[in-house]
């Protein structure tokens, strides 16, 4: 008997970012998550005027909570495709859920050709690509663990980097009006042939948008960030 070929979630085509996935993400994030964020967390958004009208940009935000991806997907006028560690696609229900949300798998250890091709495919669609340059959730008050992969992707795709500062999502409170989330969207940063220039500008804007302080760790210093 022939075995069913397993889907490669690291490779996405522009055609997959279609009407149905757009509707699914909008209903989940644009409606349900927005109701939750506005009622429970008193969501406040600033800088919507800084969002480009086209999709020639990459959404790059600091990272505090698992709430961050659906929060941004609910706020932005275009649907957003985020990366997720490939291990999540081995869990049946979660795999189905994030697949329909337009997420694609990535190996955190290295930037593979599949990642670059998928980001290029996203650009061909009406969606935008979203990434958290810190790679993993950070500690409130500081910006750490920043890598320059996002700036490299901006250079390859010739997309601007749109910095987004998030505060408050780390507070897992459930009582109405018990928390406070603030999302501030900064000015687009043009891609540069030198990724380090973009990384420095992103860090500078994120510090201004969040009030957090950038702290370079050992791995960043070794990577030359």
Structure, described:
The chain has one domain. Helix 3 links the parallel strand 3 and strand 4. 36% of the residues lie in helices and 16% in strands. The longest helix is centred in the first third of the chain and has 22 residues. The N terminus and C terminus are likely disordered. A seven-stranded mixed sheet has the order 1-8-7-2-5-3-4, sandwiched between helices. The chain has a two-stranded parallel ribbon with strand order 6-9. By secondary structure, the protein is an alpha/beta fold. The protein is built from seven helices and nine strands, in the order αββαβαβαββαββαβα.
What is the strand tally?
A: 9
Number of helices: 7
Give the SSE string: HEEHEHEHEEHEEHEH
- Round the mean pLDDT to the nearest integer and report it: 90
The domain tally reads 1
User: Helical residue percent?
Assistant: 25-40%
The main sheet orders its strands as 1-8-7-2-5-3-4
- Head-to-tail CA distance between termini: 51 Å
Question: What form results from the Cα inertia axes?
Answer: globular
Largest sheet: 7 strands, mixed
Q: Radius of gyration in whole Å, from Cα?
A: 17 Å
* Residue windows where pLDDT falls under 50 for at least 5 positions: 1-5, 220-225
- Derived from helix and strand composition plus strand pairing, the structural class reads alpha/beta
């Amino acid at each position: 008997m022939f075995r069913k070929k397993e889907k490669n979630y690291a490779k996405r085509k522009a055609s997959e970012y279609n009407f149905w996935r757009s509707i699914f993400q909008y209903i989940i994030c644009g409606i349900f998550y927005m109701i939750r964020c506005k009622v429970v967390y008193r969501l406040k958004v600033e800088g919507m005027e800084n969002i480009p009208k086209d999709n020639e940009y990459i959404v790059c935000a600091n990272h505090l909570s698992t709430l961050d991806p659906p929060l941004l997907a609910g706020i932005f006028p275009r649907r957003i495709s985020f990366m997720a560690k490939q291990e999540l696609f081995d869990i049946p229900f979660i795999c189905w859920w994030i697949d329909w949300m337009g997420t694609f798998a990535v190996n955190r250890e290295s930037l593979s050709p599949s990642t670059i091709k998928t980001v290029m495919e996203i650009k061909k669609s009406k969606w935008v690509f979203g990434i958290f340059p810190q790679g993993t959730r950070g500690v409130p008050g500081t910006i750490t663990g920043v890598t320059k992969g996002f700036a490299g992707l901006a250079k390859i795709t010739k997309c601007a980097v749109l910095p987004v500062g998030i505060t408050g999502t780390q507070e897992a409170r459930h009582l109405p009006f018990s928390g406070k989330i603030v999302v501030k969207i900064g000015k687009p940063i043009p891609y540069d042939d030198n990724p380090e220039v973009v990384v420095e500008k992103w860090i500078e804007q994120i510090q201004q948008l969040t009030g957090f302080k950038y702290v370079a760790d050992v791995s960043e210093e070794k990577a030359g960030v």
